[in-house]
Amino acid sequence: MEVLLRQRAVLGTARFSHQFGGPLAVRAARTALRTPMPRSVRHAGTAQSSQTAALGVMLGTHVLPTGNLVPSVLAEPKLRAKGFFRRLYLYVQNAWCFGRFRIAGHPLEFKQWRDEAMDVYVSLNKAFAARSKAGIDKYSTMFVQIPLQQRMEGLDKKMKLKWDLVKHISEPKLVSAVAIKLSEKGPIEHVQLVYRIHALQRLIMISPNGTVNKSEKEVVDYIAFFRDVGVTPPVTKVVGSVFETPLDVPLPKRVPSENATIRFMRDCGDIFRKKPAAKTY
Predict the structure, then answer these.
(1) Does residue 280 lie within any of the structural domains?
(2) Gap between the Cα atoms of 108 and 104, Å rounded
(3) I need a labelling partner for 103 at 20 to 30 A (CA). Which of 26, 97, 149, 219 fits?
(4) Considering the domain boundaries, does residue 276 fall inside one?
(5) Number of structural domains found in the chain
(6) Among 217, 220, 216, CA closest to 195
């Protein structure tokens, strides 16, 4: 089962190009097969779709910077020019994805995509707070399950947690989309969607003696979802998260190594990881 899951993970990666859907190196399989999986995750995949069980965030996925990550035109004209071309590149990538999806016969149901993605996002966070392995497995793929279950094991077992999304501060926004083929000759039935989620979240911690600690925090997440429309009803799962990419940070190579591909999926799979430091202006 472990080998099968890892072959599926690489299959999705090997058929993806962050530019226009061309194949990546299938050699990534050698790297993926070398790392053992936790026992709980090995058995979690049995009930998941063979298409989605072990996919991660596709290499090359990036988000345009905003706010103080963007310099003024006068201070950094070259970086601002780079930002313009990255915005154009992302626009073309998204348009190409939507076009390929329509040509494949799938309607562009943006509202349904967003609503179902938000339901999955909320359900996954609630499952983590409730320490529900079954919930984590249901709403995410292997690269998310592993770090979440590891973090869950590190929590105080006597402490009860409850998580809620109080409200969306701004409308969830689709910022990146990539159509994916899981086989060279197969149909396009899968898409990776990255949403910007700006929300007020509440965490309630109840200690063993009954003390309640309630905190609310404004959070901006860029969550990547994998949507499979080849099954009925369509399945949406969290595959990881990304951060805004500063303009002075190069994008991944167009033809990455197998090690870089797997490492990117693993890094992005830890959706609660610390945001990396970035230069501000």
Answers:
(1) no
(2) 11
(3) 26
(4) no
(5) 1
(6) 220
